[in-house]
Specification:
Distance between the termini: 28 Å
Oligomer: single chain
Strand content: 35-45%
Number of strands: 11
Structural class: mainly beta
Radius of gyration: 14 Å
Shape: globular
Number of helices: 1
């Protein structure tokens, strides 16, 4: 879960939000909060129903947004495929249930401070701690980039428990 340039992993979390959230609330976060040291990643949910994948490292401060209305109240499987330094050849992705909603071409070359604690459903966004009012049903961590097909299979295999 500590990001390194050139390696990939996937995080999935079944979560239920009880209302569209005011401002950006962090559902998944692994970022430091000290000034000029936000190395890591986070998935934020907004009050417009959009999600934001934040990816920060030694040289890139990346903010990658979905369109509005990709999530709403209720259960969803949120997935992030994280890869720093992948660029357009190996991008990062965010999914809501089985739908890919964000693609992030991150060209980061260094991760000086990547050992922040993993937090959910609490996030950090540039030194502001955001608590996400959500219920968490399950959390999965994979040490590889899952394909869209596998994410869809995981959603189909577990959705009967939540929706």
């Amino acid at each position: 879960i500590n990001p390194t340039v050139g390696s990939s992993f996937t995080i999935q979390i079944w979560a239920r939000t009880n209302a569209l959230l005011s401002g950006g609330k962090g559902l998944i976060s692994k970022k430091f909060g000290s000034s000029n040291d936000y190395d890591g990643y986070s998935l934020l949910l907004s009050n417009t129903g959009s999600v934001t994948l934040k990816m920060n490292g030694g040289g890139v401060d990346g903010t990658y947004n979905s369109s509005n209305g990709v999530y709403n109240d209720g259960w969803a499987l949120y997935s992030i495929v994280v890869r720093f330094g992948g660029g357009s050849g190996s991008p990062s992705y965010a999914y809501v249930s089985s739908r890919r909603v964000v693609a992030a071409n991150n060209g980061e070359t260094s991760m000086p401070s990547s050992t922040a604690p993993l937090q959910f459903p609490r996030g950090i966004q540039d030194s502001i701690y955001n608590f996400c009012p959500a219920d968490v049903g399950a959390f999965y961590l994979y040490n590889t980039a899952l394909s869209q097909e596998t994410i869809i299979q995981n959603f189909d295999a577990t959705k009967h428990k939540y929706i």
